[in-house]
Design brief:
- It is a single chain.
- It contains 25 helices and 13 strands.
- By secondary structure, it is α/β, with parallel strands linked by helices.
- The strands form four sheets. It has a five-stranded mixed beta sheet.
- The N terminus is likely disordered.
Length: 559
Amino acid sequence: MPIKNMFLSCLAAVTVWTAVTACSSKADNASEGGGSDTNQDKVTFTVFNGVAGSKDGNTNETTIGRMLEDQTGVNFKLEFLVGDLNTKIGTMIASNDYPDVIIPDAAFEDVMNAGAFIPLDDLIDQYGPNIKRIYGPVMDQMRAKDGKLYYLPISTQVGEFIPDPEADSAFWVQRRVLEEAGYPKVKTLDAYIKLIGDYAAKHKDEDLTGMVSLTDDWRFFTTSNPPMHLLGYPNDGNVTIDPITLEAKTYASSDATKRWLKTLSDLNANGLFDKASFVDNYDQYIAKLTSHKVLGFFDYRWQVQNALDVLKDAARKDPAMDAYNYFPLPITFDANTADAYIPAEASPVTNRGIGITVSANDPARIIQYFDNMLTEENQTLISWGIQGETYEVNDKGRFYRTEEQIAKIDGPFSDKFGFKYYGWNWPSYDVHSTLASGNAKGVGYQPEVFRMSLTEKDKAILDQYGVQTYTEMFAAPVSRPWYPAWGFAKERNSPEQIWETKKDEIARKYFPKMVLSSPDRFDTLWDSYRKELDKLNTAGYEKWTTEQAKRKAEAVTAK
């Protein structure tokens, strides 16, 4: 299940001291052991990205892509998912015909088990000095059972870990709801639901939706994950893991899940839950979040960033629109439970990444491109852009953006410049990283930029809660060296993969029934749901996950 840390953000950055392009010279690249032969003929490679939501296109149609093409001679034609991921990947596997590069996302294990990726070891040894520099400390954790490397994780931590000043995940609520209620401190799920219900009751003529959720395809976790967070755990997928014993426990059939679904059922009975949550696709969900009609929802910021950006851009142009912006809240079941919405440093995810396929005719050019991306100059270009155009450097070497630059870097600008295409899914420093100079890799993580990005309305609502950043609303992260458990790789048709598939099938069957049926049927439906789950080998799944957590924690602490 994707997360913010993976997930993370299109605003990223790396420090650099060059003047304008921050990454163009072959000599600079060579100084880091990388660089590409710009005298090579230009070539276009194909990439399939298993995540929907972006438009197909060529990287050289963006400013960043053209600059990287000038350095390497390489352009990528990007295709993003439309329709069902498993069907798309299944067709490729059946025909043994692949694009040059695949970012398979949730179909990672299927692609790996089909033998679609080539080993990268020799290519990295010959062409990947920057790949070794960045991924070297964690390479052993990335290897397949045969000891070879078949993919690169989307990102890895470099330098000091910098927390995100924004909320990573949360229960979100429209700001106008908090304002009308006098900016209360909302901690529990009951208080959150009451807050939304009270506002909706006072504004019946506005046709408001109390809460909406998302169940589209692999994003079903948006509806099934909240019980784990409400119990005070981070996103470890299908389990909660005890930070002391590292014992994993599933929660699909727990009292926590029952309480969460009963809450949605009651909301629905009161006309406050969007019934279409169980049929809407992702685009429809995002459109509803920007419609001004939805009062609240749970989600990970990376998944709703586009909606939040649209709302924030509108508020910059018209401060009155800030009322429809969302504010993150650290909701748990009980007031005395510490939340865990803000993740600590994550270990490498071993079931997501980018790989070169057996259909690629020139893997060396591709790995050289990836390696060239990992120079600090190019990481700066990809994240911060061009000095004097999209960022500045003060006399102390600190990166920042002017008000004018912040204002112009909206969605359309990011698309054209390439921030969106290159903000995720490529080999990269993790967004929480720093360089030796101390600048943040993530643009929004740089204190100077974060403060500049705040509108007067942002500052006012933060002042109401006595904090300077959104993260301060949440509990400090706790070190969890195995995190995230959803990133443990599973073999195709293994008992643990079969358990997850069947568990999801059962949830998809019963969740809509429990939420949308008459409340007096809830207990009966819950019992039926539990009986089906009881047929699964949950003890085996928990045992396997516990073993993986302990193995991962040992590897991380030993590095």
